[in-house]
Amino acid sequence: MSKCEHCIVRQFSSLKALNKEELLKMAECKTSYTIKKGEPIFEEGEVTNGIYCIKEGVCKLSKLSSNGKDQIVKLIKPGELLGQRSVISDEPANLSAVAMEDMEVCFIPKSEIIQFFTQNNNFSMNVMKTICGDLKDSDDHMVDMAQKSVKERLATTLIYLEENFGLESDGTLRVQLSREELAGMIGTATESCIRLLSEFNKGGWIELVGKRIKIVDKNKLRRIAE
Questions:
Q1: How confident is the model at residue 13 (pLDDT cuts 50, 70, 90)?
Q2: Edge-to-edge strand order for the sheet containing 81-82?
Q3: CA torsion angle 155 161 166 169 (round to 10)
Q4: What are the start-end ranges of the E strands in the chain?
Q5: Does the pLDDT of residue 128 top 70, yes or no?
Q6: Rounded to whole angstroms, how far apart are CA atoms 226 and 213?
Q7: Smallest Cα–Cα separation from 14: which of 59, 57, 52?
Q8: Hey, which residues does 109 pair with through a beta bridge?
Q9: Strand ranges for 49-102 from DSSP E
């Protein structure tokens, strides 16, 4: 029980509404496992049959577009839950979740989650608030994609990566996306993304350290982003 009670996921997610008895039940029915970098937690169209608690590591949520490109919709960090919408709507996963580094996750079966949902009002309210928050983020992202230039979107994304996932000891972004992934996240061709990174580098706003990126002038990036 102590593991679920003191887990990072409980601190930051809907699970904080569960009482000790419910946490004990959850601890008894959960499955914990490691997912290696590059492996999927689940894939688009898969019936998930439960939710995933992210204890360690970062994963990308992405959707395969009609032209076969992988469009990254969101990055998920420790303390977050995956699959709440699918459990409540009783639909297959709308996105794929793939590990960007080695991860520790726990899986809680749908039957248990639905029981908490029907018996604990605070928990069900928390889940709904999370899903509403995701919808709001999705709306904001859609407006950004439609109204911001690719340059503005790149600046916004670099700031997002630093502020949400932190830095390595050498000052480079901790979460490193490949050029193709970064291009997918800002909705442009890989070549355009590489050209823009080179422009940002020449301008002295970022520094390219091999494949890694270091933000040098965050204020300038903010001005570009806005």
A1: confident
A2: 31-35, 103-109, 50-56, 81-82
A3: -70
A4: 31-35, 40-42, 50-56, 59-64, 70-76, 81-82, 96-99, 103-109, 206-209, 212-215
A5: yes
A6: 21
A7: 52
A8: 50
A9: 50-56, 59-64, 70-76, 81-82, 96-99
Three-state secondary-structure class, residue 223: helix
Which residue, chain included where needed, has tokens 């749908």? 110
Residue 80 CB neighbour total at 10 angstroms: 19
Both tokens of 213, joined, read 């990126």
- Distance in angstroms (rounded) separating the CA atoms of residues 71 and 73: 6
Contact 154, 186 (CB under 8 A): yes
- Calculate the alpha carbon distances from 26 to 2, 18, 47 in Å: 11, 10, 21
Q: Is the pTM of this model over 0.90?
A: no
Distances, alpha carbon 162 to alpha carbons 58, 156, 174, in Å: 14, 10, 8
The first and second tokens of residue 201, run together, are 């580098």
Q: How far apart are CA 46 and CA 48, in angstroms?
A: 6
Q: Which tokens hold the place of 63?
A: 């959707």
Q: Which residue has the tokens 């009609």?
A: 66
For residue 68, pLDDT over 80 is answered with: no
| Dihedral in degrees, nearest 10, Cα atoms 30, 32, 37, 39 | -50
